[in-house]
Amino acid sequence: MTLDKHSEHAPFSPPPPQPSPLARSTQTTLTMDEATRNKLLKSYKTQVASASSTVFATLAVTPLENVKTRMQTHNFQNVAQCIRYLWRTEGPRGYVAGRLTSPSILTADVNALLKSGALPPLASVTAVRVMNFTTYAFAKNKVSDFIQRMTGESPLEIYDQEGSSPTVSTVVTFTAAGLFAGLVSSPVACPFELAKNVVQTSVLMSHRSQASNNAPNDPSLRNMPRLSTTEAFRQIYKKYGFRGLYTGFHLHALRDTVGTGLYFGVYETVKQIAEREMGKGTGAPAIAGAICSTMPWFCTYPLDTRKTRAQSVLLGKSKEVGEAASAMAKSSIYKGLSIILIRTAINNMILLSIYEYMNKRIDNLDD
């Protein structure tokens, strides 16, 4: 065999690496054309819009949610005292407990976050909200169909007419669908909300279960380990069994059923009026979100307080539980209402504005 001078001295170049069959299969599976992607987005519009909006809204109000839970379960005199107490005793981590339980969430990898318990709280609240919106979307169509068979008029068609006003049938449709959605999602939501409450109050429970006067002078509380969500589940199950995960469930189910019915009924009604006056845009969902999220709390807040107090003292020594119960007895069932009204108004202004925006964007995608 004869080689020319150039090929004789050319360096050896290995052939480019070829992707493995598994990699080629994965690339084929994950790659889709625009039409397929748009079809999937339209098929799961409610789930995509509710999940993404929930993540943004939940992260925005997590500090306020932590203050609200402490106000309900411990004998703080006012919101300012609770905020100062949290800062002095628990530091910045006290404001993100129960949602982002790891201080390194922005830098940790997924495996580290799973081990620390940082992802389950946010994932659970997102899953529950997606279930809630999905059930509501299904139920309102069924209720509307039923009313149409009874009266000959479709509430949803009336609602969708440009410049229409609320009617008895539209209000009944949205409220009934909301009642059903709240009832259906409560068995899923209860264990996760229980764990959130236990996580948020775990440091307070370890310090005599209430805001004692010398707590701000105790530097050890800043470094006191906080339960992760998974650890809270494990300890509750170990101590009380499966039934322990549903402590306060009757209060939770009643709160969510009534609250969600009022939430969707007020939201759709106020949004319809606002759009008639302001036109379609982000302003109407934001206004409706603030109103629909605050009004139900005046009816359901006593239920929420009783539920939160029952859940927060599940873990702790018998002496701590007794002190916590004593502190709760001295505290009003409306303690923390002001902070939750601010929190829920901001949360739902963000949530429903993004939700409606994403719905419109997905609707406008090419088929």
UniProtKB/TrEMBL annotation:
SUPFAM superfamilies referenced in this protein's UniProt entry, alphabetically? Mitochondrial carrier
One MF term in GO for this entry? transmembrane transporter activity
Q: Where does the record place it?
A: Mitochondrion inner membrane
The record's section on InterPro entries has: MCP, MCP_dom_sf, MCP_transmembrane, Mitochondrial_Carrier
Positions in coiled-coil regions: none
Its Gene Ontology cellular component terms are: mitochondrial inner membrane
Has the keyword Electron transport been applied to this entry?
A: no
Q: Which UniProt keywords apply?
A: Membrane, Mitochondrion, Mitochondrion inner membrane, Repeat, Transmembrane, Transmembrane helix, Transport
Give start and end residues of every Solcar repeat.
41-125, 169-273, 280-361
Which stretches of sequence are listed as region Disordered?
A: 1-26
- What is the recorded membrane topology of this protein? Multi-pass membrane protein
Q: Tell me which PROSITE patterns the record gives.
A: SOLCAR
Q: Which Gene3D superfamilies match?
A: Mitochondrial carrier domain
Which family would the database say this protein is a member of? Belongs to the mitochondrial carrier (TC 2.A.29) family.
The name this protein goes by in its record? Mitochondrial thiamine pyrophosphate carrier 1
